[in-house]
Predict the 3D structure of the following.
Amino acid sequence: MISKDQIIRIEKAKHLGDHKLNLSFNDGTEQIIDFGPFLSNSLNPLIRKYLNRKEFMKYKLDEGDLEWNDYDLCFPVADLYENNIRP
């Protein structure tokens, strides 16, 4: 369990198919997040490019953050922790 003062970080990300990732956090919490609806509903072509599976698969973890292409696309860790990403 994470204390109030501890920072939530993503420790592991596993691709589950399509635009879904299973994220494991440093307190043992796991979330399966489908990024497909977020990407599909975006009007921004710089975000929609990640509908392409090759581009989507370029995700990486950087010091507890999930990001694509040097923070071209990223989400607040708190939103990922709560599985609450919105277009």
User: Anything to note?
Assistant: The radius of gyration is 13 Å. The chain has a mean pLDDT of 93. The first strand starts at residue 10 and ends at 17.
